[in-house]
Every structure is written in C-alpha cells, then in structure tokens.
Specification:
Number of helices of chain A: 17
Oligomer: heterodimer
Largest interface: A-B, 204 and 202 residues
Radius of gyration of chain B: 25 Å
Order of helices and strands of chain A: HHHHHHEHEHEHEHEHEEEEHEHEEHHHH
Distance between the termini of chain B: 60 Å
Radius of gyration of chain A: 27 Å
Number of helices of chain B: 12
Number of domains of chain B: 2
CATH topology of the largest domain in chain B: Aspartate Aminotransferase, domain 2
CATH architecture of the largest domain in chain B: 3-Layer(aba) Sandwich
Order of helices and strands of chain B: HHEHHHEHEHEEHEEEEEHHEHEEEH
Structural class of chain A: alpha/beta
Strand order of the largest sheet of chain A: 1-7-6-5-4-2-3
Largest sheet of chain B: 7 strands, mixed
Distance between the termini of chain A: 26 Å
Strand content of chain A: 5-15%
CATH architecture of the largest domain in chain A: 3-Layer(aba) Sandwich
CATH topology of the largest domain in chain A: Aspartate Aminotransferase, domain 2
Shape of chain B: globular
CATH class of the largest domain in chain B: Alpha Beta
Helix content of chain A: 25-40%
CATH superfamily of the largest domain in chain B: Type I PLP-dependent aspartate aminotransferase-like (Major domain)
Structural class of chain B: alpha/beta
Number of domains of chain A: 2
Chain lengths: 528, 451
C-alpha cells in the first residue's frame, strides 16, 4: 500500500540545500536596537565612490529558525568524537571536555581585548605564564612561545629559530653553507614545507626495515657539513619510539646542526619521557592533539614552540614574563621568589633583539591556551601520566587484536598508534581506501590512510585514551569482519560505504573543473 | 581520571590479555635512562568545582573585560546572536576533524563551501579558501603568493597597515628572498601616498594596502590598484575590520587581486586575541596558487551533490616542500562561527550593523572634535575608527579615564609610534550606546583644560 502521508515540508529530508538556495527576499534573522545617534546621510559621511553599490546581492536572507534548522540538519551529516571512536593516526582525537569549553567562555577572558594594557590583563597573562611553565616541565625545554596558531605554524617558528641561531653562531658566511634540513621519509608533509619557508633545502633520510631512522644514512648526510638540522617526529609516524634518539641528537650536534622534534605524537610521552632529556633542541606541541583542545572540523589549533635555554633569545616576541623572576633558572619545586615584598606581575617583554620576530598578531590562539591549561589542571601530574599509559595500552590492544588478519609491517611494539597495511587484502583487489570506507558502515570513523607515505597502503590507527575496552573490541571485530568480507565478498567492500546518505564522491572530477563557491545561476540545476 | 573510560582493573585485564607484564613494560622501547623516574612537577588534579572557581577568580583579574570599550585596532566588539555559540557548540561540529572522509563530513564541508561563498560575496572576489589562522598570517601568505604568481621579488607595503601585521610579514619573508619596502602615508590625509610608491617597478610583485587602514582611514583602493597594475604588480588589500565590507565598496570591485581579512568581527569573541579567522580570497586564475584548503562541489555515482576537499595537489601533504604553504590545521570552527553569523545577520543585518557603526563613530568624532584642544589629525573618510589628537599626552589620559570612569577610551598610538604622543585610536561599533559615547566625550572633556 502506498503511503498516504503528504509531507508539508522537506525537513525530514536530510539533503539540506545551500543557504543561498533557501534564501527568500525579505526574511530577517536579527534585530538590532534602533540607531540612537543623530543619523546623517551616509553619502555625507563617506564619499559615494567608496561605498558599495551592489546592495550585497547574493548574501542570504533567512530567519533565525531557518539558520538553526540549516546547521542542525547539516551537523547530522558529520561524524564526531562524541559519537564514537575516531582513530585517525597522528591526529589524537581524544575527548574534548565541556569543562574546558566553559572555562574558555568565562567573561573575563572571552571579553578581553588583546590590546588591553598588561596591567589590566593580569589574569590573562597569568594563564599564559602558567601554561608556559607546565609545558616547559612536560617537555623538559624551558623556552616557550605560545604564539604559533597550529602545528605547522609552530614548526615554522622552530625552524626559523634554528636558522636564526645558526646565523648568529656561524656568521653570514658560515651560515650560508648550512642550508640543509634533514627530514625522514616518514615525516608529515608540513615538515618539508616549513623548512622550505625558512630557506632550507630538504634532504630525505631513509628509514630502516625496522621503521626507525637509518643511522648510517644520517651519518653520511651529516658528513657533508651543510646540515643545519634534523626534523624528527618521536614517536615517529609509524608509532615507533626512535630508541636511538640520543645517538641521533649526538650525530646531528657533532655535525653542527640542531634537532627539531615534531611533537604531534606527544600523547605517547607526556609524564613518561621528555624531549629535552633526549637531546632535542626545539619542539612544537599541538594543543589540539595532546592537550585536547577541540579540532573543530579543521582548527583552531595552537602550536607552542618549546626550546632550550640556548635558543630562547630567538623565540618570537613578545615573551610573557613574570616579575620578580625566580632565583636562577631552575624549576625546583617551591623555589622562593627573589623578593616576597614585591607583588607578582606578568608583563610583555619585547627586549629580545635576536628574536625571529612576531609570527602572529596579538598572543596566539588564546582560547586554546585556556582549554589546555584546564586540561592539565584537571588531570594533574598523575592523570597526565595515566592518560599516556591508557593511550599506549589501547594502541597495543588494537595491535594485538588485528595482527592475525592484517599485515603489520614492523615488528617493534608500537606506542600510541599502530600501522597496518592492506597487503593481504589486495590479493582480492581490496585496498586501504575500501577498508576505510567499509569501516564507516560499521559505525567508526576510518583511521588515517596512505600515511606515512613509506608504507604502501598504510592504515595508521590511533585510538587515544578516550576509548573503552568494549569499543576497542567492537573496532577489532569490525576490522576482522572486513578482512573476511574482503575474501568472501570483495564487491561489498569495494562499493562501501553503503550506510551513508551519500556515496563516494568523484574527487577527480571535482579537481578538474573546480566549483569553489555557489553562484546564482547554478541554483536551479543542482538544488535537490 | 574521569576522561579515561577503562578502569584500572580493566586495564590490568587488557595488559594480561596482550601478554604485557606491566604498564612500565608498555614503554620498554624508550631507553630506561630516558624514562622519567619522578612525577611531573605540575599541580595535582583539581575537581570541576575547584577548577572553575580558580579560573573565574583569575578572570576577574582582567579588569578591562568589564569596561565600556572603544578599543579596535584589529579586534572589534560586535554583537553576536546567541545562536552562533549554540550551533558551534554542537558535538558534530566542534569534535570533528578536518573533513578527510567526505561521506561522513558533509556538515563541515557544506559549511566551508558556504563560508567560501560568503567571503567571495563580501570581498567581491571569485574564490576564497577555507580560512587562514588570522588576518596577519593571511597577509603574510598573500605576500608569498604574490611572489609565486609574478615571480617578482619586491613587495611594497603601506606603513598605514596594522603594525603587528607588518611585523608578521617581516618574519614570514625574512628567508624567502623577498624585499619588503614601506610606502609612507600622508600625515594629513592619513592614507597611503601614491607618490610614495616610487619603488614600484617591473620587479614589484605586489602593493599591499590596508583599508580601512590602521588609523581607520579609507584608502583610495581603486587608484592604488591602477598604479600597481600599470607596473604589472598585484594589489593585495588587507581588511582588519571586516564589518566595513557591509558598507564600503568591495576590494574586488576596486581592482584587488588578493584580499585578506581578519574575520573576527563576524561573531567571534575578543578572547584576548584569538582564535580568530583569516579570510583569503583571490581571482579564479590564481586558484592553483592559493594557500590552504579549498572545498569544492562533487557528485556521487547517483548524481547526488556533495562537497569535498579539492585541489589538494597545492598542499603540503602532497607537494611537501613545493607546497603553496605549510598550513594544515586552519580555523575551521571559527570559520563556522563567521558563517553562522553572516547567515543569521544576513544581507540586511550586515548592512545595518555596518551602517550603525559608521553613524555612531561619526557622531563620536563630531562630539570629540567639539572639545577644546581635541582634534582629528587625519582628513580622509573613515568607517568606524578614527584618530583623535589630545591636547596632552594620550597615554596617561586614557589610563585615568579607565581607572576613574571605567572607560577604555582608545589605543594610545605612542605604543606603536613614539612620534604620536598625543594621538589615540577610537573605535565605535553598534554595541556602543549613545550613553556610552557621551560618557566618553564627557570623560575626555575633563582634559580640555591645559594639563
């Protein structure tokens, strides 16, 4: 029997049109207080040639209700951490606490203008200072700038610091001979891109069959004499700790270079080991990974840059300092202030003539700093270590659970993430992409795929500490089930996902003739 | 720890199941001498009650957050509809990653596509990216892009650009082989002097100008574009007060080749300077040179429309050191806030806010100008910010105004230029009531007597 229901609206239809297609002339979504000053003809205030004459044609006209429904419907198309496991390798998709969101919205912070004088923004500066102190302790590197807005921005800052240090140490002539940045073949793409921005050319270091930096190749590259530094991720993007890290740092240092560590994988180390103790000179952190500030569908991030005492003079300005400063530079617990009679003040210090300069207006992504500090204080020292332990255990649990069905290219036990490949499944024509898409049907967000580039058909899985055992078991079961399907019914996997509202999109066609914005003439032909 | 689902017992079971003897053994690939033997010297864990109280207490030490404010200079107080924060707080948006899996990320992807469209409409440009970190880094990226597009190495920047933006540009280009030259501004008009573009020649990649500029003055963008184009250079226009786009002729209509802006005015809290959102727009022909992520339309095999990240071959994860930028994470959630803001306010709302800003700012300027000893040193037209010259040093006067009347009356320009001791920058938005403006004027009136 045919249904008698005639829908009045299409609101149950999840296919939400673009807002521009929903727009109706005359709809209003706002109300302002009436203008309360004497109004003058706008042409009298600003000459006509400087005024818009297009009447903002095309900007939507919708009601508040339209906007709410539009975004709520669109939101239902997204997978998110709050729905379940989001095992993107090297992305650390951990729980984003609501408490941290609340902290960032406290009026005293959210309403504070960045050009407020330091004396009227003491609370805001105290937060920056405290976070600097905590990150210095966590990384073992005392010089900190919170200015960079994301990981790649922190990398750029760190590499520019290396450049400035070498320029100062070797003089112009000496420095000009050091223009090589060494980067392992397993590195994240931002590493070479950031090195390039600082005027370095990149030489790639091979990984060994074990998945670690090839020391012989490193020595060979260092013997040329042109090495400014090494950019290393540790644990590396295969999830393996570079156990020769001290030796690696020694080789680079003896060759006159510095060691930059990409801190994307710090979730494996917090409270367990510190880059500063390993010989690393400078590192960036991703507060949006390790310290749980939300990814927000692609940012905002925050990419603090932490470095040794030696590199500190080159950090971006302004630095946030505390006066009176503590005696000496040690971080001994409970070290007394120089003078207790002077009240504690937080200040901006611009007096760093060797600084690489400012990398961003104002102080960086301040709202993320509040969240990260709240994360640290909610965990405390024991909770931070507990999170690391739980994250590594979860990854090891998955590694253990999947070895029987998927090829694990490296034997070494992984840290917080583990890489598998599609080698066994490709025999039936099923590839990593297909496995990832099929995982969606099982209710999971796929893992990171085809990265790192050195592993053919890579599937990089990072569960984080925010996943319980039952869900890990379900994930393992889903992956094993897909492995069976790949043998018994490969078509099922090849055509996945089957449960989503939209199928695989033709990305090649999209790139050939890119349509990057809505235009009125399209509206009729594409609205559903 | 309440954010970790597995209890200690469950974890012990899991260890046993995978054949690992102890938690410590999980870390055996880290050489023993590198493993911490003591706990980190960070405070012990706090409860939610304690933590909130602590942050609220610290927040009260930011006295300025409570004041009536006329501060602008790259960050602006505008009204934000309640639904903006509500919608960006939905789990599906704020706890999602970059939309690498389009089948389960259409919410984010469609929102970015709408964002790109809105940025194009406001700036008058053909295409826009998914966002940059902020206005200052967007400007630096525009300088780098101009060099790529033109293969020329000199870039002329107006000295009436926000001083911090100029600093960021200097940092970005210091190793890129780009020669940054400054063009002077006219001390009477307050705008960039066409004659100061004398360095403009066949080696010039771009002229970069901010409008309204740091002093609030509206630049003659069309004239500057013509001048740049005559030399084969691009014109890059920077906007820090994006609300001005609701009223002023778009940079695109004035001939700009790249437009970058700070989008904070569109529903984003001041939050002591970030996170904000950089807007980046350009012409169609430069689509493959633009930095950052782009979302484009795509179809599945049933012909259903969707959206995907596209033209990725420009980006670092494919091109590595040859990428158009090193940017990866951008400002997704803040771009979403701006999108929701713009759609809620809509065509008429953006126009009305811009109109009110201009009307109120001009009212304030008229009233301040009437005060004995006060003047407006620049004669160029302005939108909602203007420079006031006080009869005495501005800095102590503004201090006193803040402490005694609870009004942040403006930004002393001596903080950026020691040769402007008496000047300060006043910003007025739709959130400032007439009462507040009158209170500012009254407050300033007490300084009219010779000090």
């Amino acid at each position: 029997m045919k249904s008698d229901i005639t829908k009045v609206t299409t609101h149950i239809n999840p296919n939400e049109a673009l807002i521009f297609e929903r727009s109706q002339p005359g709809r209003i979504g706002y109300r302002l207080p009436p203008l309360d000053v004497d109004e003058q003809s706008i042409n009298k205030l600003i000459p006509k040639e400087f005024l818009r004459d297009d009447d903002l044609e095309g900007v939507p006209e919708v009601s508040e209700v339209d906007v709410i429904r539009h975004f709520v419907r669109m939101s239902t198309w997204n997978y998110s951490i709050d729905q379940g496991m989001y095992p993107l390798g090297s992305c650390t998709m951990k729980y984003n606490s609501r408490l941290n969101e609340k902290v960032a919205r406290i009026a005293g912070f959210a309403g504070l203008h960045p050009l407020t004088l330091a004396e009227d923004a003491q609370g805001a500066l105290e937060v920056i200072y405290q976070l600097q102190e905590d990150l210095a302790e966590i990384t073992g590197l005392p010089g900190i700038s919170l200015q960079p807005a994301a990981g790649a921005h922190g990398e750029m800052t760190g590499v520019m610091i290396i450049r400035a240090f070498i320029d100062a140490r070797d003089g112009e002539g000496g420095s000009a001979k050091r223009r090589t940045m060494l980067i392992p073949d397993s590195a994240h793409g931002t590493n070479p891109a950031s090195a390039h921005l600082s005027g370095f050319s990149v030489k790639t270091i091979r990984s060994t069959a074990e998945g670690l930096t090839d020391l012989d190749h490193l020595r060979e590259l260092c013997s040329v004499g042109d090495v400014a530094g090494l950019m290393l991720t540790n644990p590396n993007t295969l999830g393996l700790f570079e156990r020769n890290i001290k030796e690696i740092c020694r080789i680079v240092h003896e060759a006159g270079g510095l060691v930059y560590m990409d801190g994307a994988n710090m979730n494996a180390l917090v409270g367990v080991a510190r880059p500063g103790d390993m010989g690393v000179d400078v590192i960036h952190l991703n507060l949006h990974k390790t310290f749980s500030t939300p990814h927000g569908g692609g940012g905002p991030g925050c990419g603090p840059c932490c470095c040794t005492k030696e590199l500190e003079p080159f950090l971006p300005v302004p630095r946030i300092i505390k006066t009176p400063t503590r005696r000496g530079s040690d971080r001994t617990e409970g070290a007394p202030d120089v003078s207790t009679s002077q009240p504690t003040r937080y200040n901006l210090d611009f007096n760093y003539p060797q600084s690489i300069g400012r990398v961003k207006a104002f102080f960086g992504n301040y709202g993320m700093m509040l969240r990260a500090l709240a994360y640290i204080q909610t965990h405390g020292y024991d909770g931070l270590r507990e999170a690391t332990e739980a994250a590594v255990l979860n990854a090891r649990y998955i590694a253990h659970g999947l070895t029987s069905d998927y090829e694990k290219p490296f034997d070494a036990p992984p840290m917080h993430e583990v890489v598998f490949t599609d080698k066994r499944q490709t025999r039936k024509g099923v590839h990593t992409l297909d496995i990832a898409k099929r995982l969606i049907d099982y209710g999971f967000h796929p893992m990171t795929i085809y990265f790192p580039l050195i592993v053919q058909g890579a599937m990089l899985i990072e569960p984080t500490e925010s996943v319980g055992r039952q869900e890990l078991d379900q994930f393992i079961e889903a992956m094993r089930s897909i492995a069976r399907e790949a043998v018994e019914d490969p078509e099922l996997v090849l055509n996945a996902p089957h449960s989503t509202r939209i199928g695989r999109l033709d990305e090649a066609a999209a790139a050939r003739k890119p349509v990057l914005r809505w235009k009125p003439k399209q509206a009729a032909s594409t609205a559903q | 720890m309440r954010y970790i689902p597995n209890s200690p017992d469950e974890r012990a079971d899991m260890l046993e199941q995978i054949g690992v003897a102890s938690t410590e053994q999980l870390f055996e690939s880290i050489p023993e001498n590198l493993r911490l033997r003591e706990h980190l010297k960070v405070p012990a864990a706090m409860s939610e009650l304690e933590l909130l109280k602590r942050f609220e207490d610290i927040g009260t030490r930011n006295q300025a957050a409570q004041r009536i404010s006329f501060l602008g200079g790259g960050a602006y107080s505008h009204y934000t509809p309640t639904i903006v924060d509500h919608l960006i707080s939905r789990s599906e948006f704020f706890t999602a990653y970059t939309p690498y899996q389009p089948e389960i990320s259409q919410g984010t992807l469609q929102a970015i596509f709408e964002f790109q469209t809105l940025v194009c409409q406001l700036t008058g440009m053909d295409i826009a990216n998914a966002s940059m970190y902020d206005g200052s880094t967007a400007m630096a990226e525009a300088v780098l892009m101009a060099e790529r597009v033109t293969r020329r190495s000199k870039v002329i920047v107006s000295s009436a650009i926000h001083p911090q933006y100029l600093e960021v540009a200097h940092t970005y280009v210091q190793h890129a082989g780009i020669d940054l030259r400054h063009a002077l501004y006219c001390t009477e008009l307050g705008t960039t002097l066409p004659e100061s573009l004398s360095a403009l020649d066949e080696n010039t990649a771009a002229v970069v100008v901010q409008s309204p500029n740091f002093f609030g003055c509206i630049e003659d963008v069309s004239a500057l574009a013509e001048k740049a184009h005559n030399a084969g250079a691009l014109l890059v226009v920077v906007v820090t007060e994006a609300m001005s786009l609701g009223l002023l002729r778009s940079p695109g209509a004035c001939g700009a080749d790249i437009v970058v802006a700070e989008g904070q005015s569109f529903g984003v809290p001041l939050s002591y300077g970030g996170p904000y959102v950089g807007l980046f727009a350009t012409r169609d022909k430069y689509a493959r040179q633009i930095p950052g992520r782009l979302v484009g339309e795509a179809y599945d095999k049933h012909g259903r429309r969707g959206f995907v990240l596209t033209l990725a071959t420009r980006e670092q994860h494919i091109r590595r050191e040859k990428a158009t930028s090193n940017i990866c994470t951008n400002e997704g959630l803040i771009a979403l806030a701006a999108t929701i803001y713009l759609e809620t306010m809509g065509r008429r709302g953006v126009q009305e806010v811009a109109h009110q800003c201009a009307q109120k700012a001009h009212y304030a300027a008229r009233e301040i100008e009437k005060l004995a000893g006060f003047s407006l040193p620049f004669s160029a037209p302005f939108f909602n910010e203007f420079v006031v010259r006080a009869p005495a040093s501005a800095s102590p006067m503004l201090d006193q105004l803040a402490k005694e009347k609870g009004i942040d009356g403006g930004i002393a320009l001596s903080r950026f230029d020691s040769e402007r001791p008496n000047d300060f920058l006043v910003c007025v938005t739709e959130t400032n009531t007439r009462e507040e403006i009158d209170a500012l004027v009254d407050g300033l009136a007490s300084f009219t007597a010779p000090v």
